[in-house]
Design a protein that fits this description.
The chain is an alpha+beta fold and about 190 residues long. Helices cover about 25% and strands about 25% of the residues. The strands form two sheets. Strands 1, 2, 3, 6, 7 and 8 form a six-stranded antiparallel β-sheet that branches. Strands 4-5 form a two-stranded parallel ribbon. The radius of gyration is 22 Å and the shape is globular. About 10% of the residues have low confidence. One of its GO terms (biological process) is cell fate specification.
Length: about 190
Amino acid sequence: IYVDMVLVDVNYWKFTGKWIPTEQAEQCHHYLHPDSPTSGAQWMKYDKISFSKLKLTNNKQLTATQSKNQNTIILNSMHKYIPRLNIVEVNGKLPDLISSSNRNGLLPKHTFTFPETEFIAVTAYQNTDITQLKIDNNPFAKGFRDSADNRMTYNPYSYESGNNLPVDYYDNTYEDLQAHKKRRYQ
C-alpha cells in the first residue's frame, strides 16, 4: 500500500482574492506505507491503516533517499494535489511497488481517491487564524508551538528608539511582524 500526491491539473496557482492558475506544474511524489509490502490477510487484521508518519514538505533539497528515510512527500507550493491510495497486488517475489514499471500497470493495482481531500499546497499564510490552526494541529510543528509560548513573555516596549506602539503578535500579518522587528533593531 502506498500514497502518492497526484497533481489535479497542470497549473501553478496564485491567490489574489481568489485562486488563479498561472504556470505549469511539476511531477508528483509517493510514500510507501511502513508496513508494506505485506499480505492482504495481514492488512485485514488491522482495525485501521494509518499514514500518521507521513510528512508533507516543500524542501526540494532532499534527495529521493532522504525523502524516503524521513517519511516525506515533496510537494511544490501553489500546486493543486489530491492524495491517492494505491493497493498493489504482489505475488511471490516482492518487487519495488512504486517503481515506474509498476506504475505503468505491470502489477494489478487498485487506486482510490477522495475528491474532498483535494488541496493547494501553500507555505505562507496571510490569515493568522489559519497559521495558528496549522501550528496547533501539525504534530511536527513543536518548534512553532514552543516559539509561540516564548512570545507570551515578549515585551514590545523593551526598546529605546523607534515607534513605541505595542505589537499584538496574534493580530498582525507576518510582514507586519517582520517590519516591527526590523524597526526594533535599527
